[in-house]
Fold:
Amino acid sequence: MKAVKIGSVGLGRLGYEHARNLANLIPGCVLQAVCDMDEPRLRAVAEELNVPRAYTNFAQMCEDPEVEGIVIVSPSFLHVEQIRLAMEHGKHVFCEKPLGVDVPQCRQAEAVVERHPELVFQLGFMRRFDVSYAEAKRRVEAGEIGRVVLVRSYTQDPRSTIESTLKFAPHSGGQFLDMCVHDLDLVRWFTGSSIQKVWGIGGVFEFDLYRELNDADNAAAMVQCENGAMGFLFTNRTHAAGCNVETEIIGTRGTLRVAPVGARDLLQIVDGHGARQEYYPDFMSRWHDAFVAELTAFTGHIRSGTRPSDLTVYDGTAVSEAAYRCKESFECGKMLPIR
Amino acid sequence: MKAVKIGSVGLGRLGYEHARNLANLIPGCVLQAVCDMDEPRLRAVAEELNVPRAYTNFAQMCEDPEVEGIVIVSPSFLHVEQIRLAMEHGKHVFCEKPLGVDVPQCRQAEAVVERHPELVFQLGFMRRFDVSYAEAKRRVEAGEIGRVVLVRSYTQDPRSTIESTLKFAPHSGGQFLDMCVHDLDLVRWFTGSSIQKVWGIGGVFEFDLYRELNDADNAAAMVQCENGAMGFLFTNRTHAAGCNVETEIIGTRGTLRVAPVGARDLLQIVDGHGARQEYYPDFMSRWHDAFVAELTAFTGHIRSGTRPSDLTVYDGTAVSEAAYRCKESFECGKMLPIR
Amino acid sequence: MKAVKIGSVGLGRLGYEHARNLANLIPGCVLQAVCDMDEPRLRAVAEELNVPRAYTNFAQMCEDPEVEGIVIVSPSFLHVEQIRLAMEHGKHVFCEKPLGVDVPQCRQAEAVVERHPELVFQLGFMRRFDVSYAEAKRRVEAGEIGRVVLVRSYTQDPRSTIESTLKFAPHSGGQFLDMCVHDLDLVRWFTGSSIQKVWGIGGVFEFDLYRELNDADNAAAMVQCENGAMGFLFTNRTHAAGCNVETEIIGTRGTLRVAPVGARDLLQIVDGHGARQEYYPDFMSRWHDAFVAELTAFTGHIRSGTRPSDLTVYDGTAVSEAAYRCKESFECGKMLPIR
Amino acid sequence: MKAVKIGSVGLGRLGYEHARNLANLIPGCVLQAVCDMDEPRLRAVAEELNVPRAYTNFAQMCEDPEVEGIVIVSPSFLHVEQIRLAMEHGKHVFCEKPLGVDVPQCRQAEAVVERHPELVFQLGFMRRFDVSYAEAKRRVEAGEIGRVVLVRSYTQDPRSTIESTLKFAPHSGGQFLDMCVHDLDLVRWFTGSSIQKVWGIGGVFEFDLYRELNDADNAAAMVQCENGAMGFLFTNRTHAAGCNVETEIIGTRGTLRVAPVGARDLLQIVDGHGARQEYYPDFMSRWHDAFVAELTAFTGHIRSGTRPSDLTVYDGTAVSEAAYRCKESFECGKMLPIR
Structure:
């Protein structure tokens, strides 16, 4: 298998996970370069993972002729500029969500990608690469549940991580942008339609900080798609049992539920609490295999010259737009159309 | 145990179920009289259940001095008038949902009940008498899940009964009125708050008849309560696996799910379809024990001179009002406030 | 419905449950008389349940011409003598397990029953009347799982009741006799065959008292039936999660599992312990409906002049014999044939 | 990470799976050589997986100085001789189960391993490397369920593969040897004790071929360990729902169940068959990750100079001995001691 050489930018929590996967777990992949402004961190990771090149300057990494593709896990406001730089230097790009911090930025990203049809561009919607979500999609496509009527999707972070969550809350963009984007992507993916109307609601049930931020600590949105299909999203940060991402797809002929009890292994425990399954402790462990799968797909596309068939830059824009409208709706108290 | 003598009006499907329960399964209850305009049906049921008196005229049953309480299972448009007649004759009243066919009717019922504080008045929200729902309520009240944030509730009828459903569709009042009232009651009951805003959506995904009726075959609504708690309802008539009524109550500290797989017994079947539980085949079997329990409570109140503490005529009005607003919202495409 | 008048002997924990069911919950049944040697207890129950007659002498109750059938819930060593007395006085008999305290006693009971084919005789194998077990049997009979290959059945009492269990341990007859008889009945019922070979094992894992009693606190037995089908039983008294009675029937074409997680209602709880279902707290709550159903069947047979078709006195003997052989096998350390 | 070079012998179904994992999925591993007597097969695999060396002669592969460790997936009767040859040439050895085809052969293997303490020797008990089994072991070790009382373990192959199963039946060694060895290993592993008594039973319920082979198509065994703990095993080849390997560990304080419904992903399907989870279609997909994990451990031990701490050649002997005694017990109809 021909080796594919990757550079990765951003070595925060998820950035480090991607870097380690690229270095160790993606078949036929070589982690050729890493980039981060935090130089001690950069050196430490480069050494640990045995990475040949380490850059504090993203533009320089883009000029490295050994690097074929770039994985962007930097702060959101840098995404679009880094996509532009990377593609103008002929690098394939994998970009974490969100595509941009507002819709105009997303449009700029679209323009860049459109100018480089010869390059792979892939978004970090890793749920699509999870075996259970992929199997659900396969069954929907095969018509097993008839027409899709409703997609219900929850994203709940474990209460155990609430401290760090509160710390990042002022810069997270709020629940709808930070948490619901994956669910909005799933609504679009499973219905095969685009979101037309949204109503976002929520409240501050426990942490007053969110009131100051004009945000909610528990939020929900109902959406309706162009083809009439419906969506319902719920998110909070205080799930007692661990990481809970569950999705239900109701069709006219059957229903699929992904991770309705979120079991992290095949273990059932029977004790003083009854018969029980535990959840994944955090999103990192929940999606580990999906993170590996999405980068395996990315390097595979580079190697084979193919493109992701149904995961494009436009999905990034559409999802961001829907998330923004949910936030606006929550703020103004009205149901809002999209466009 | 002192016998309590009951008269029952309406011998349709649910009316017959109630009559049989009153005759055979409610401890200390005597089914003293039955009433229906269909005389052959009336005679047959009276004979089968060994009921002393049979009336085709409701007013006459109200004059029967042996009858202490009346169970109303007649067509909806008759409810309010029958409540009035019964209470004016000094009879305790159990009335099936809906309280009335519109909000003004419900207000009339309120006035009648207010004039007779000496009489028991109970509404047929049988879900509250189901052991699982009652246990969920007990846990919520005990603070086990913290503050209630979201109540999600589905009412899905089995596809196997779609023929009769389509037949009754023109007179059912539509999905929100006919199906969601129980879910709206649960939202109010579990949140301990009243519904303030609603947005109802839906579509015709399979049966064109519903388009002609200006109704949907799959419908959903999101609601927000006065205290900020949220609700999400979904209903359809085509659940492949049988009768599915499931409710999830998400709190700040934990979540309760009632009947998330709706198993009708404690049987797990492992065969070519995997490991599976079957659902109740229809709502009659799902709620059989709850139907018995609610009438046991009704006759118990009569016997002991007590009143249902948290199930009043005003609940009937509030739920009807919310259901009407969902329907209006669906028709006009806007989010609507209540009052 | 013609009233059936019943006398009940034994007002211990289960005796009181049966008496209360007979008085209040069995349609068309009148609890005409109760009998117990503890006179204050007798008076109290008779008054509470409004029972016309109260006897401290069983023979006298047998002479009461109003009593049509007798429910025997007395200490095991009295069963056979009471069956004889009752039937010789022309009373129908329902007898709790075990039929007798040894096999010769069981044979005497058989002889009495054979002399009175005009009378109903029914044994207290209430599991057969549980809706889930009955549904499993129906599916087995319908051939849904092919030939029955293995029946695995557990009887585990909740640890929360260990104190009273230890108190009664010296007179319980030991785990195999006291706990496994219901499981042995199920092996015979589901395989439709008789038990031919047994090997009982066990150990004292926690409570030294059982060592003194030459018994085990955890015990298991494997059995093989005449038709080759296999059985496995396990029992203990320390189930942390509550009452656990679960049974698995493996066939050549499918498997049925009754109560594999023993949920006491349709509630799923999601909290710091994961997603969980709680078990029934004790056997009384687990089998309440089955207790009602078996006595409804008994009074129904009396009323209609029918007989239990597949639950005979010989089942009582066969199950007792198998339980004794398991105990012997455990004591001698050998696999033993039956007869 | 230092590369570890492996040679693999045997390219049957499981041999090919291991070879492909070694070539593509084991971090830091190089598949240096493959060996099989079927030369076209050998060439095809070597080419597909880009393996530098291909041998039809095992002894020659043992002389290859590039090869550091050898993975043995050849027919069982060759295992001991290949272990000897490999270790005498200084190669680390990973050997698939069974260790040998009889107990004397296993003793020979023990002697070889004892002569080479400088080399890694690891057995293919992959279940121990499955995340769910490993987590169960961790909880047992942590005392979460108290003392282990009973280990129940099933190995059921899917009915869909019955044709090929019947083809191999004459040379499989029978159900106890071919199927139960993994379960016997689990009994020993979870109880931390050795098996002392066994009673094996079974029958021919469907496929007459097994009668000719003096084998059973459904077989069970109960065992008792030196410390009093108990075990129950069941196996057949006709599981309608797919591959079912489930294990229950009952302790004095709690119970663990591994894969009680064997779900192959986190998908729940609700359709005309109820709410259901599907099983893994075959053992290859069930254990894929465990196969990768055990070889990752093997190459890790080679790299770091460590040894598997609780998985030794003696486990292989003990498990084989127990399996043989189960078979003898089944044949002679008696309960048998071990040694």
Observations:
- The first strand of chain B starts at residue 4 and ends at 9.
